[in-house]
Fold this sequence. Notes:
Layout: H1 20-50, H2 55-86, H3 89-110, H4 114-142, H5 148-181, H6 193-211, H7 229-242, H8 244-273, H9 278-298, H10 308-328, H11 332-360, H12 363-395, E1 399-402, E2 405-409, H13 412-435, H14 443-451, E3 467-473, H15 479-492, E4 497-501, H16 507-517, H17 526-550, E5 554-558, H18 561-571, H19 576-587, E6 594-599, H20 602-608, H21 621-637, E7 642-646, H22 651-665
Parallel strand pairs: 3-5, 3-6, 4-5, 6-7
Antiparallel strand pairs: 1-2
Helix pairs in contact: 1-2, 1-4, 1-5, 1-6, 2-4, 2-12, 3-4, 3-6, 5-9, 7-8, 7-12, 8-9, 8-10, 8-11, 8-12, 8-13, 9-11, 10-11, 10-13, 12-13, 15-22, 16-17, 17-18, 17-19, 18-19, 18-21
The chain binds thymidine-5'-diphosphate (TYD).
Thymidine-5'-diphosphate (TYD) binds next to α18.
Amino acid sequence: xxxxxxxxxxxxxxxxxxxxxxxxxxxxxxxxxxxxxxxxxxxxxxxxxxxxxxxxxxxxxxxxxxxxxxxxxxxxxxxxxxxxxxxxxxxxxxxxxxxxxxxxxxxxxxxxxxxxxxxxxxxxxxxxxxxxxxxxxxxxxxxxxxxxxxxxxxxxxxxxxxxxxxxxxxxxxxxxxxxxxxxxxxxxxxxxxxxxxxxxxxxxxxxxxxxxxxxxxxxxxxxxxxxxxxxxxxxxxxxxxxxxxxxxxxxxxxxxxxxxxxxxxxxxxxxxxxxxxxxxxxxxxxxxxxxxxxxxxxxxxxxxxxxxxxxxxxxxxxxxxxxxxxxxxxxxxxxxxxxxxxxxxxxxxxxxxxxxxxxxxxxxxxxxxxxxxxxxxxxxxxxxxxxxxxxxxxxxxxxxxxxxxxxxxxxxxxxxxxxxxxxxxxxxxxxxxxxxxxxxxxxxxxxxxxxxxxxxxxxxxxxxxxxxxxxxxxxxxxxxxxxxxxxxxxxxxxxxxxxxxxxxxxxxxxxxxxxxxxxxxxxxxxxxxxxxxxxxxxxxxxxxxxxxxxxxxxxxxxxxxxxxxxxxxxxxxxxxxxxxxxxxxxxxxxxxxxxxxxxxxxxxxxxxxxxxxxxxxxxxxxxxxxxxxxxxxxxxxxxxxxxxxxxxxxxxxxxxxxxxxxxxxxxxxxxxxxxxxxxxxxxxxx
Length: 686
Ligand code: TYD
């Protein structure tokens, strides 16, 4: 689309902000976003102040500002898009900035009251509609294609990132306005005027930046056509309706935005009822966004053991619970703290939702899905933001009294927040059900395990109808013999048994085994060793173990994940957490129902081996000691899932101990008389 220069075909161009024209546009955008947020805060606050006195009128007046902000988008949206494609974009933006400057300035200058506030707001919004598509269409003119995504991320960052800054600024300006009131009579009693002046100046600054931005092509290089809103919505609905994941995401996001809208819509009234002024309103607003930013930043790193889909749904449910607390606890400081938490929950849901679409929705549908969600989010937000204060106003102020004594205040704003909370919690649960990918694993247990840094196996899940028993132990411990004996015993009980081992139970696994155990590869790095074992295991789980479990078979495996934790984690001194994570990923979280550890001192085990030592067997004794200690530690940490048997006992004694334990976990009672099929197997080298 653009011609960023000849060299870029071969090398990746530098960071998008190193591009001077884009940097200038981006700065203008940041300044404007800051102005937009300041505008929203100042106007809602001013509308409240102008109609102060009557709770109901005040709520309706604030709602009015939001309606007026939403109307132009519905009426003028498609027209403004076409305008941006036809006329000089730089001039469009410049003229729009000047117009916004004049309109916003007129509000404090004329002191004209609520009607003009509405008219001016409406006009500013109309102008915005021309500015935004002109800007969006300009970005691809300034930025090479490979950097477009990065540029869009930066745009998103300033669109939302400036909100907390604006909130802080608004709080500071309100306080400053109060203080200056003593010196400048004009500012006396007009708390929001200073904020509106700064807001107007922001648009002027942007006008200047855009005017000096001569790199925007005069005639459009590309005709960027945006499909009509209607077509977009229809196409989006088709896809969204047919896809479980996206349906869940959409439901969840609507809930999150509805809850957010409820907060934005009634925050001013609620903060007022709690005794806070404009500054406190600004702080609450800022708290939500600060929380959101941190949620977006930390969300992806949170609770890695938990499925992302579950975290998405849970964070929305959590947002609902926090919102309910906000509605019910009438204390400004606590409300501010909870607002941070609320923002964080929403931020986590937002970033995870976005990432999931990026990862799981096919490329050709992704753009539309994103844009669908964006428009849906906007419509929901504006709708709720409009309806919420109106609803709060209609309900009015109420006190719950017992025996004539007022004990608790439940105003319209509290009620609206409670409804928002209910919607969010309900919708979060619905999203959880829609897109759950770990059916059969109770959510509470899953969450609890994730908090402790673990991942639960999908018990009772469809694939786990069979039973999975793993054998572990050091070299020459006798586990190979014992696993075979157990397999025979189980078959004799009439079970369908799959006896298998690691490494090397699949086609690819056999080649990996050759690499891993061949003494020729003495210098193999510890990390590649761990990855190769994990690769063998991934293949093993997918091709052998899961299919067997799925059909209800008993799987008996000679070695599994614990071998990697012991040999690569403790033996090779890799970070045990890393090894666990890689293996968790490789196996999709499949954990054995029972692990039998045959605990044999290496000094005994190693002497049992015959033939030439392989790469691992030829490690020094301390290596094998470390491995043994780790096996024992693993068993001790989760005793219920392990059977530890002394490997120096007689072979049939060991078998009996194993059978006794396995009998306890078998799905059906096993007849006792079938116990004695042991003792005749030749000793097989471990
Ligand atoms: P194998 O000949 O199957 O021996 P064993 O009788 O001990 O099972 O070789 C497997 C070797 O691979 C063994 O020395 C242990 C090692 N190993 C690891 O280091 N990490 C692992 O994850 C697995 C499965 C095995």
